[in-house]
Amino acid sequence: MINLTTPLTEDQIINLKAGDMVTITGIIYTARDAAHKRLVDLIQQGKDLPLDLQGQIIYFAGPTPTKPGEVIGSIGPTTSGRMDAYSPILMGKCGLKGMLGKGQRNQAVIDSIKENKCIYMAATGGAGALLRKYIKACEIVAYEDLGCEAIRKLTVENLPALVINDAQGNDYYKL
User: Fold this and answer.
1) Could you confirm whether domain 2-169 is CATH 2.60.40.10?
2) How far is CA 165 from CA 15, 42, 137, 150, in A?
3) What parts of the chain have a pLDDT lower than 70?
């Protein structure tokens, strides 16, 4: 198990290989396709983003409602391919270094991961109730009107993930 601490640096990323098991500690952000579209629209308009993505990880997830006394509801990964149109822009223009979701990415995303020295990781689908236990704090930082798809800032501790696409262009699904 390799321990990653956010924000990610190229030194942390460059030696990771597709198939490595990692844990993530620090700040990560949630965002799904509606939020990604808004972020990319701002970039294309030359406007500032509501958060700094330099060295950060975006978790493709939208939590269920939070129960009383809990930090967050169930928070399993969503299908990452829905963000494929947006991810290369966020890596190239905003310094995004990590993505966490489920499923395969298209070749343009894999090429951008390699070009920008990033990683794509998978969280365990169907285990959202378990994954919430690694989240120590949660706050909405943008697009509250999107409900569960609002961008959230999560403080995580030892969140487990599997490296799928590494900075050398390797793809775990094709090994």
Assistant:
1) no
2) 12, 27, 28, 26
3) none
